Structures are given as structure tokens and as C-alpha cells.
Amino acid sequence: MIAAGPAADFRAAVYAPFTRSRFDEPPEDLQARFHQEGYLYLPRALSSVVEPLLNDMLAVLAPHIHWDQTLATPVLAGEPFFESDPLWDAVYPEVQALESLHRLFHDEEAQRLMTLVAGEETFVYPMKMARIAAPRKIGFETPPHQDAFSHHAGPTMAGIWVALHDAEESMGRLTILPGSHERGVRPVFEARGVGGVQCEIYPDETLWHVSDVSAGDVIIFHSQTVHRAQPNLDGQRVRLSVDTRFCDYGAPVFATNLEPHHGWRIPRLDWEYVYRHWRSNDLHYYWRDYPALF
Hints:
Strand order of the largest sheet: 3-12-7-14-6
CATH class: Mainly Beta
Number of domains: 1
Strand content: 15-25%
Helix content: 10-25%
């Protein structure tokens, strides 16, 4: 049973830019930074591979969301919608069925980034997530949380988040509480927004890291690192991003991560639906032989 509790008050929060990293730095330096701050920010690390996925997402989100050439960003064409709204439920299965969404995290460039924190052999979770942060839905953004709770994950799991286009402050941004992974898995409370829960924020935790992002920027974060989304305060621009979780090969992965994202609540959204139009079947059910499923 999840207790009800007060929402964190962020009016007194202080913001500083993400600490920037480069994938060509010595691995020991990157790992030390990851363990100190709980994340790595790698600007434009996947900039060469995100455009096809962005185009695929826009194709299935039309006519509700489209690319505005003048603004160089996705924009909302109608009423705003939130994750689990009826319109979101109608379009999201088609987003989940995109082969490019799943394949992005298995391609060589993404795998190379994962080895920065998980060693030479990694396991990518089957559940891949696409985020559609529409404007004018204030109060429904993702609250502060830890993936260790929401994914039933151990300390070797990490998240990898990828920006699909440039996004600035008014569009809402992923925000990290640096060093928060060092204080363990926290109590959670009911909260409005994506996921339905938020974790406890301690009184001395007022400094958050956040930056405007560019297409292909990558953030890798520890399973216990507290993170949240800022609200999209723009009048029309939509923020699109994708993410998944991974771990060192052999670490435990729980069954809740083996379904398509939101497959537990959208009846038709299962793997047969996701795979039905893929050009290749090499990633179909790739996790079934993984030795540590629970």
C-alpha cells in the first residue's frame, strides 16, 4: 500500500547545469563521475541516429502532433493529452510498435554508451518507453521518483534517456537530483502525474541539475538517482524523448519489465501487436534466454 503524502515544494529549488561528459574520456573518469553524481550527461552522443526515430514517431502521431518547420520542433495540433488519456491510449500502441524505437537501444552506438557504466556486456530491458510531453497539461508531469522502486531494480540497473530534438526550459526538461543515489531507496507517496507516485525529497536537497538539450543528447542515470520532469509551459510545442533501462549481464530483471510499455493496461498492446510489421525478427523475444528473469 502506497501512503498519501505531501507533494515536494520546488519553489526553493536551486538549478545548475548538467555536468557535461564525453564518451571518449577515460572510462575510469566517467565511472567515478557516475558514482559521485548518479548520472552522466553526454551531449549529442546519439545525434547521428535519432532523426529516423523522430520521423517515425511523428508519422504515427499525426494529425495530433506534427513538425513545425519554423519552430523546428513538434507542435500540438489539437487539445493537449496526458499519458493514459483516451487519445494517448489510442496513439501510443502505434508508437510502441515502431521497430526504430526498440532498435535504437540495441544499435552499436547506444550499446557503447551503456558499457560506460555497466561493463563490456549489458542487457537492455525489453520495455522501451516513448515520452510525449504535451503543453497545457500542467500538474501531470512526471514527479520525482527512483527507478529502483518503479522497475523493482537492483543497484546495477541504469536508465538511458535520449532527446529526439532540441528542447528548452519552457518545454519541460528532465531534471536530476545529483548525489541522491547515495541515500538509498526512499519512501514513496501517491502523486498526480506519470507513474502515480513520488519519492521523498529531504529538506537539504535543494540543488537540481538541468539543462536545455539538443537532438541526440543522452543522460544515463543510476537506478536510485532521483529524477523528474519539469512541466511543459509552452503554448504549443511538444517534447518527445525515449528511454529504457539496462544492467550488467546477469543482474536480476523482474517480470514487470518484460511487457511492452503500458501493455498491462492497454488490452491490444502485446508483443505480437508490436512485432506484426517489423522488417526483421532478430530482436523478437530476445530476452527469453536471459539467465536472471524473476
